[in-house]
Design brief:
The structure holds 2 protein chains of 2 kinds. By secondary structure, chain A is of the alpha/beta class. Helices cover 35% and strands 14% of the residues of chain A. In chain B, α21 (685-693) packs parallel to α22 and α24 packs antiparallel against α25 (783-790). Classes of the chains: A alpha/beta, B alpha/beta. The structure holds zinc ion.
Amino acid sequence: MIYIEDHWQGLFLKPQQLKKWKKYANSADKKIGAFLQFKPDLAHISSAEHGELEGVPFAVKDNIAVRPFKLTCGSRMLKSLNSPYTATAVKKLQARGGVVVGKTNLDEFGMGSSTENSSLAKTVNPWDLSRVPGGSSGGSAAAVAAGIVPFALGSDTGGSVRQPAAFCGVYGLKPTYGTVSRYGLVAYASSLEVIGVIAKRVDTARMVFSIMHGQDDLDHSSLEYQPLPEVPEHLTVGIPIECSRDLHYDIDKSFKKTKDTLGELGFTVQEISIPSLDYVVSAYYVIATAEASANLARFDGIRFGERAIEADNPEELILLSRSRGLGDEVKLRILLGTYVLRSGFQDQYYLRAQKIRTAIRMDFEKAYSGVDLILMPVYSYPPFKFGGDGLDPFSQKLADIFTCTANLAGIPAMSFPASMENGLPIGMQFLAPPFGEELLFKACSIFEKIFPAPDSPIYSTEWSE
Amino acid sequence: MFQSFIGLEIHIQLLTRSKVFCGCKAAFGEEPNSNVCPICMGYPGVLPALNEQAIKMAYLVARALDCSLSKQAVFERKNYFYPDLPKNYQISQFSSPVGQNGYMDIEFRRRKKKVSIREVHLEEDAGKMIHAGDISLLDFNRAGTPLLEIVTQPDLEVGEEAEFFLKQLRRLVRYLGVCDGNMEEGSLRCDANISVNHLGRGLGSKVEIKNLNSFKFVRKALNFEIERQQDILARGGSITQETRLWNENRDVTEVMRTKESAHDYRYFPEPDLPSFKPDKAFLKSIETSMIELPNLRRQRLIRACLLTEQQADFICEERETTDFFERALSCGAEPQAAAVWLASDIQKMLNRSGISISESPLTPERFAEMLTLISQKRIHGKIAKQVLEVIFDENKSPERIIKERNWEQITDRKILKGVVDKVLERNSPVVKQITQGDPKPLGYLMGEIMKLTSGRAEPGLVKELLNEHLYLSFIQVLSMGGAITGKVNGAGDISPGDLNDVIRQVEEQGDIPKSIRFEEIEISRILSEEITPEDWSSLIIALDSYLNRGNTSGIVVAHGTDTLAYTASLLFWFFPDPPVPVVLTAALNAEEAAENLSAAVVYASEKKGGIYVSLGKTLLSPLNLKFERIAHNGFKNWNLQSPLYCSKDLSLSLLPLSDRKELTLAIEQAINQVCILKIFPGMRGDYLISLMNTGVKYFILELYDTGTANLRESPYSLKKAFLEGKERGVLFFCTSQQEGIVDFSGYITSHELWREGAIPMGSLTTESTFTRLIVSLLASESDEDLLRLMEEFSEDINFRA
Ligand SMILES: [Zn+2]
């Protein structure tokens, strides 16, 4: 089985090839702005290991720590922070020879669905430079879709790996919560998020996941990966009836097409119901912002980050540093999170959201007793335009409905390119029970055979010839 | 009347090797910011990992406080911004702490109490911010070190009690080895909650007090708050719920923040740490790590080794001392001797060398060996002290030391008899003097014998041999004056008389067995009511010298009736275990004199060692003696089931007897600070305050019945006097005007007295309390010492006999 195309293998061991690739990468990135820091030379020093990924370049979302790269999280607050350590997941890939070539752009601290919330750079969609690449792992998705790297790491808190992957026409895996160590992932909503992979091929995502997973002593919420005992020959896919509402025309079309295709490919397709789906967005934003309000409290300008040096006292220093260093969307979510955690209001918001979360888990448990996988759209809209011509922030949040469900339930999900509509890629996603990653890979591979990830207009492998 | 409710929040730093959520060293006093890493500095992307040693210590403390242990301990985030808090939230516990609903038993001012422990929870400490001029410096070495918070219910009532509880808790955590308990360095920290309210109305508004970084501040701040809040309530005001800071420079509490500005910590479960579920193996390891706790161990030692409370407190304060003591016992040491040596000479040696007992060359084995040498009479006390010094200097065993230095005592009767014979032969004029009735030169003979044996003769055996050779058995009769020796003059008044007259009469009556010879020594020729501190010191010095002389087989003290109750109890406390009987006697009139005196002489020759009071044929205890003319022979004992003649069980450590002048001065000084006051209806509290102004530091208050007095707000209330006294460090000891036991646990007013700091003296009479106080004042070095000595009657006298 081929995990990664030939031209990526041992790239860093072939000086001639490498030079050509760098030239290509630089010119491609100039068009799309995927990277906040692109320094292949810097990274190569730290990697001299052998393994499946020997000499293979990859990119890492800039909210995941890689020494000696920066760790900006797309925020002014951290624009000059150099990471003093490396995340466990990255270390594992480096130990198999993988080479980090740069850090990719994102919505500030992972908060957004378009990468427009980055305070440091603008990333565009390789399919249409006037459209967003999705988010928050927009830089990672764009880099893969532009052929700069075979895969990139992202983080998925409410869809941040799957949604940009769908927008850019590549694969995005959100693993089971806890199977990949979060050590080194800058926390936004700790109980929801996980490090995931964005890749051009299903096999690549599969291999990267197989290297990254496993319990980590540095992350007490991490779990030993216990794959399901067997993957059935014949797969049954459930389609929640609640999914068909409020979809954009192109999405609806692609969703229907995918259902039909699955039937033709031999999947058993049946309708199911996830009644709690109506509540997931509210529950998701209460829990995510509550955790974020605490997780982002550490950015006070004192020990690291941008400091308001002219402050007269420590309290003022904290206040000024935060007012200036954090962007509007981040402030909004911190305020919301602080609000829902106030004493006297927890019953109404935080605890109620936890109850919904339990209900969602139970709905899924029930659903998986009859089906192997669940098919859902990734996002209610196709890739949208920048700024006022695009989607307003509130609608963007409502459209998280299909992705954040998997985060609340803690289950694995994988988005895959399902069709092209009006020249833009549309992604669908499979959701599996906990530790059901192999089901996802199998289903996606079957689909990949008839509809492999399309090459974006920017994508090229000419440098390798 | 008011009630006060005090709860404490105690933070202890756990003595773990590393911090609670990262691998950094948990050490103090090192270069600032040297023990830090991305985790404890709150860098983006890092996660906490729970330290197993810390969670184990947390469960151990919770178990020791009899808490129900959490089956699923949850960690929560406590959110607040502060520059020394790296993550700007603290990982703590809220909904399901390590332990809940425990308790600790205490006994303060003779009142037993269960102090409930609301919860025990584990959390991380913050760093430290130091302001230097117009810059602020931060040191994160302490950030992330493990803290255990212990929260009590509001079961405490006064500052002193809270301080006492805190000390008991400190002893516990030090015993468990989880904290060094140093308040000044902040390894043990305490915040207090206090609520004062009108009696019977339950809890009022809660005031929190912070910045209590010493035991003294805990006490002072709480007492200040009680008074402040009572004042407000008394004026019809209400208490504001707020947090106050103790200002140690001004001795007051000051507002820090009000309820409105209180933090909302927005607790929520820590998503980075799964809840801790102790498995069977973990719980078993907690059980096996459980040790016998200091309180229980103390009680066991008191019972099993007949230790006094004071001895037990000393031995149980530090675990290594207790361990040393018990190991010495298992090596054959005798408990009493071991306790005495540990608290005195060994403690002195340790203080001098600045090491702890476990670090010293004195092992329990060597210690037991030394005590055995003493009990086998192979060395005596003086030599033992020298042996101790050599152990510390040369690190050798006692056996080896006495062998090398030839220090072994001569206990061979034959050898000693030879020496005694030789000395007596050489000193025949002196021997003659003694056999004719003057025992004074005995000391000289003793010295000669010691000289000949280079100090190695066993003193007891020498005394015995001398007695044998000289056929000595003296009853000394000392006179303190009074009617027993008085004369009725022409006008019918009694004037001080001559003891010799009475003795002559006694001899003439012929009631004294022929075998007894007695000599009289006149201490003073006064009337009983004229007794002065100097008379007492003369009596004590005289008694001490006769008791130690070796040829005294009994002592009679002729005394007046009026102050007999005082003198008798004074001697009872002063000579806890006299080797021969000391019999005090008195006569109501001159006619009884001869009869009473001869009866006393007979008792002095027949009884065992002890202090007795004889009046004709009636024998009474010197303790709780009451002079009541209507009683048989004018005297009776209060509250004693059976008479006590010896205070061994309640003994004070032996006082060094210096010369008469010094002792007089010391007694004078003690008495000058004491006042006995009988409460009467309409007595104004101000009287007590004016007495304090004249230098009274210790009041013995004779209360009504089981211990009540006026405390209602009025000029006749004692309350103000108590508050004023508390401020000035004045102590109040309470006795009853009637026969009966003073007990503050029942009645409302008496409980109020307890709360205000009065100490119930149980079944002790005013006179016995007074003399106990005088002797305790002589024996103690601080008020703390004194209190301990005065409170030592944990059980009532009448049950102890
Ligand atoms: Zn650390």
